[in-house]
Amino acid sequence: MTCAPAGPSAPERFPDGFLWGGALAANQYEGAYDVAGKGLSVQDVMPRGVVGPPTEGPTPDNLKLVGTDFYHRYAEDIALLAEMGFTTFRFSIAWSRIFPRGDEERPNEDGLAFYDRVLDELERHGIEPVVTISHYETPLALAREYNGWTDRRLIGFYERYARTLFERYGSRVRYWLTFNEINSVLHEPFMSGGIATPKEELSEQDLYQAIHHELVASAGATRIAHEIDPALKVGCMILAVPFYPLTPDPRDVWAAKQAERANYAFGDVHVRGRYPGYFLRSLASKGVELVVTEEDRRTLAEHTVDFVSFSYYMSSCETATRPRQPGGGNLMGGVVNPTLEVSDWGWAIDPLGLRTILNDYWDRWGKPLFIVENGLGTHDELVTGADGRPTVEDSYRISYLNDHLVQVREAIADGVEVMGFTAWGCIDCVSASTAQMSKRYGFVYVDRHDDGTGSLERYRKQSFSWYRRVIASNGAVLTP
């Protein structure tokens, strides 16, 4: 593991008002997939995550249908977050809980009322909500009947949904994210974009037109939010992966730059309001001609985001000079970095990469940055602790998060404006990529297993107390 030494000017504590918390997604923890008028989402037919084709309908082996039952246990779970001292909680709203098909004229009141209750509980504990409008949860009807975001009509459906949320919750929620990891549609078009065409058959024309529709919808949501209340803050959300050249050969350096640009383009449009030249050249080389209206151009240009949020789990390498070896597990491609350790699922562990991303994004966009996902997915073993209670002795998770947060502190000392940090999967949830329970991220262990068995009881891990101390000290207890 490679980490930069802490600089002498790095503060011991994080800035006042830094938002400390965790993050979860509706499709991975809510459950209650068919309760109170909720419609099906793409996740309800993905029992194996992204490693298998969708099924025709929900199947008993899909752990996400129950998740960790937050729908019925939200008060208990939010109390655990409050016990850790969370000042913020990032969660998503299930689109198909509000508009079961996605294309209705009127929302489902029972779905809206559920999130009223969640917000009531957060307010009772003084926890600031951060809401993701669409987190890999496209209503299944929009995927099956419209081929997801390839169809321009989804812009209007999404804007109606976003307006409904802003009007209902805008006085209670200040921070909004439009699409989770919007650039992931390049790699997982069904999960990320509701595109039903199998990805091996999906044309680049359709893929990039779908991306354009999402970008316009994101800007449209920003417009609506600011019209309803100019104090609302809307951010984009990007899956961040720094790419390093595998060797100093200039061809590898250029290959790494090209790989990073594929992700930069999404932030460039959100922040700058236009497509960058390198992206347009790339489209031309693929023979892609986007259908872009004058209204699209105005929407993108006039309604840019207030901040940039991102997930960070790994870095990767790129090469144009060496044979490409399969493996490594990194979602965004690239080649294995031989200098880094990897997680149980093959993701490169690179704390310094987080400081790199923070500096790169700040230098490039000059917008406040929000780390809304980071964490270690690994196997945990429930044991009996010294106090006789079940726990997980997860010193490995503490080390991972400590090392990453030290690099956040360093980036802040570099002059980067960082709004906050929400650890991913703060309470164990079903993995998005593999649909397993055994890939655990949380500070709280949930007794549920890959075969669907378990009591769903919650148990505090060793990292629970550690994170509580980190928050209480505003980062002062972190060790370089």
TrEMBL record:
Active-site residues annotated for this sequence: 373 (nucleophile)
Listed GO MF terms: beta-glucosidase activity
Pfam families in the record: Glyco_hydro_1
SUPFAM superfamilies in alphabetical order: (Trans)glycosidases
UniProt-listed PROSITE patterns: GLYCOSYL_HYDROL_F1_1, GLYCOSYL_HYDROL_F1_2
Keyword Hydrolase carried by entry: yes
Record-level GO cellular component terms: cytosol
Keyword Hydrolase in annotation: yes
Matching Gene3D superfamilies: Glycosidases
Keyword set, alphabetical order: Glycosidase, Hydrolase
One GO BP: carbohydrate catabolic process
Highest taxon, organism lineage: Bacteria
PANTHER family recorded: 6-PHOSPHO-BETA-GLUCOSIDASE ASCB-RELATED, GLYCOSYL HYDROLASE
Family: Belongs to the glycosyl hydrolase 1 family.
Protein name: Glycoside hydrolase family 1 protein
Organism annotation: Actinomyces respiraculi
Lineage: Bacteria, Bacillati, Actinomycetota, Actinomycetes, Actinomycetales
